TrEMBL record:
PROSITE patterns xref list: PUM (PS50302), PUM_HD (PS50303)
Sorted UniProt keywords: Cytoplasm, Repeat, RNA-binding
Protein name: Pumilio homology domain family member 3
Biological source species: Exidia glandulosa HHB12029
Chief location: cytoplasm
TM region(s), chain numbering: none
Domain PUM-HD: 17-357
GO terms of molecular function: mRNA 3'-UTR binding
Length: 358
């Protein structure tokens, strides 16, 4: 076994003076340093920008013996400190990646009882996510148990939401009872910058039994969500990845509203996604709605050509239309383009340059 020279640890905090060894390491770039050269100083080096990077690189190819020495210097006394450290957290993540299962379990044991605090902390949340990937299912379940009762707080937190997303991605759905707490909050989650991401992960990974109540709740607010800066992404996700019946329900809310929604900054994205994902019949009906002039002669196509958002929806309609409908739509756009030279805006230029009206 390698001998451990005794060296200062970092319990005194980041303001403590650097050891002579760390000073030499930072100054001497020509020396070929090895992990064994810094044994006894692993915690201090882990908390230093250059030392942390060195340890991370060396752990990838370290022997079992070297990894054990690094592990023993950190766990358990200094694990929590480094998990929350700007540089130290990366060393802990490497231990989860390259350590033995026994080491990973022991490292995760030091986190138990602190999962909520770590999940809400800028660096700790990264380590919790990494741990979720590498620990055994029973330990994943104990992480989940610690967060129960606090999940909505985590979802709405800039750091915690990433932990909840990782749990949904990696943990068996039958262990994720906390999803019940999202019921009654679907609108709030959908319109939140972090909540909208968590909902999308739910729809992507969870069982039908868990997602059906959330989707049923979502459908009550579809029209408002289409027009929300975050909610529109949730609606788009369901259009792209959801079941046909959920897609149909969303498209039914667009019918009769295409022009209005196409002119909206956020809902226009939903219109485009609907045109791409709709079945043939609904796609035809949505495009017909765009093409059909009103009784007073008002032309939706002309309005869309001039509008900063709707012109993109019109381009999308041109790209997905087929057969006779496409010919008619192209003819309409061309006829108006010749009359709109005075509107020579960026929006009409997009259409002039479009390959779909050649």
């Amino acid at each position: 076994m390698f001998q451990h020279p005794r060296g200062p640890r970092r319990e005194d905090g980041p303001a403590a003076l650097r050891s002579p060894l760390l000073d030499e390491f930072r100054a001497n770039k020509t020396r070929k340093w090895e992990l064994r050269d810094i044994f006894g100083y692993i915690v201090e080096f882990s908390g230093d920008q250059h030392g942390s990077r060195f340890i991370q690189q060396k752990l990838e190819g370290a022997t079992s013996e070297e990894k054990q020495i690094v592990f023993d210097e950190i766990v358990p006394e200094s694990a929590l400190q480094l998990i929350q450290d700007v540089f130290g957290n990366y060393v802990i993540q490497k231990l989860f990646e390259y350590g033995t299962q026994v080491q990973k379990t022991a490292l995760a044991n030091t986190m138990e009882g602190h999962i909520l605090q770590l999940s809400l902390q800028m660096y700790g949340c990264r380590v919790v996510q990494k741990a979720i990937e590498y620990v055994l299912p029973d330990q994943q379940a104990s992480f989940v148990k610690e967060l129960e009762g606090h999940v909505l707080k985590c979802v709405l937190d800039a750091n915690g939401n990433h932990v909840v997303q990782k749990l949904i991605e990696r943990v068996s759905p039958d262990r994720l009872g906390f999803v019940h707490s999202f019921r009654g909050s679907v609108y709030e989650l959908s319109t939140h910058p972090f909540g909208c991401r968590v909902l999308q992960r739910c729809f992507e990974y969870l069982s039908d039994d868990q997602t059906r109540p959330l989707l049923d709740e979502l459908h009550k607010y579809t029209t408002n969500l289409m027009q929300d800066q975050f909610g529109n992404y949730v609606v788009q996700f369901v259009l792209e990845h959801g079941k046909p019946e959920d897609r149909m329900l969303i498209i039914s809310k667009l019918r009769g509203q295409m022009l209005l929604m196409a002119k909206h900054k956020f809902a226009s994205n939903v219109c485009e996604k609907a045109l791409i994902t709709a079945d043939e019949e609904n796609q035809r009906l949505l495009i017909d709605e765009i093409m059909t002039p009103r009784a007073d002669g008002f032309s939706p196509v002309v309005t869309m050509m001039k509008d900063q958002f709707a012109n993109y929806v019109l381009q999308r309609a041109l790209s997905v239309a087929t057969g006779e409908q496409k010919k008619l739509l192209v003819a309409q756009v061309r006829s108006h383009l010749t009359n709109m030279k005075r509107y020579s805006s960026n929006y009409t230029k997009h259409l002039v340059a479009s390959k779909y009206i050649d």
